[in-house]
Amino acid sequence: MSEERALKKKSGLNFKDQRILLAFVIVGIVIVVSIINPKFIELKNIIQIFQQISVMGILTMAMALLLISGGIDLSIGNLMVLSAICMSTLIASGVALPLAILVGIIVAIACGALNGFIIAKSKCVPLIISLGTSQIFYGISLTISGGRIMSFNGTLDAIGSTKIADVFPVMLFFLIAMIFVAYVLLNRTKYGRRLVAIGGNEKNAYLSGINVDMHKIGIYIISGLFCGVAAIVFSARLDSVSASAGSGYELNALTAAIIGGITFEGGRGTISGAFLGCLFMGVVTNAMNILRVESYTQTIVTGIIIVIAVVLSNINNLRKN
């Protein structure tokens, strides 16, 4: 359902709303970890959490829109990296930074359009198609970079290091902006309402006069745009990129969206829920770092979260049906 429809409830807390439960879980984790280590609740660490989820948050918005429309894209991690590598290559060859960034975003949009066109016209399962294009994007990144780590040589420091009021990193505003764009697109536009209709029942949407193919291609183009913006933030944070750097981002974005109440079946979910899912992932990861949990154990915990998220999503979907 759309954000507005989800919010049109009677006054009072609705504990059947997954967002409410998720918010309580996040607060509970914050309280417990803060008791163990008070540094967890310090402003510096809170900002660090939002910095850590800045890239994943933008990709989660893209994944959320795709899932709600009945699609999915497992190539967004490698697509983001391909965009970043194109930017780095152009900058290294002497191209002006604004133009390099523009070309990187255009590459991401073009690749998103390719995904959407193949999926819409072939009527194939989006998961399989995007797995294939993910390998294509990864291969192109390897070819361009030669398998080397590509450096930006500090050209994006204005985004990666600059802080407003010496507290809030500029990159956080990229995340906020993309969350706002996703929310407005889904809830304040006719296009967004049609995406929900397509995700809910594609056949009925087609019979009602909606150009399903055009809308599918459109949402993958928008997803590509989000990947291009994520590439800017990713590059600004690390000042370098390698062809394998995008591995795992698509799975984390998918997990965050599912945790936030968005289903695989499409037609249901909210942008606020997707953001809370992303925040939950960030809080858990940061908490494990603060508590000095070994990296191997963190991987196990992440895997457990993914399994639980998928199971709960399926259970909730069965209940609603």
Automatic annotation (TrEMBL):
Record's protein name: Autoinducer 2 import system permease protein LsrD
Organism encoding this protein: Christensenella minuta
Membrane protein topology class: Multi-pass membrane protein
One Pfam family linked to the record: BPD_transp_2
GO molecular function per UniProt: transmembrane transporter activity
Record flagged with keyword Iron: no
Record field: transmembrane: 20-37, 49-68, 75-93, 99-120, 127-147, 167-186, 217-236, 248-264, 271-290, 296-315
UniProt superkingdom: Bacteria
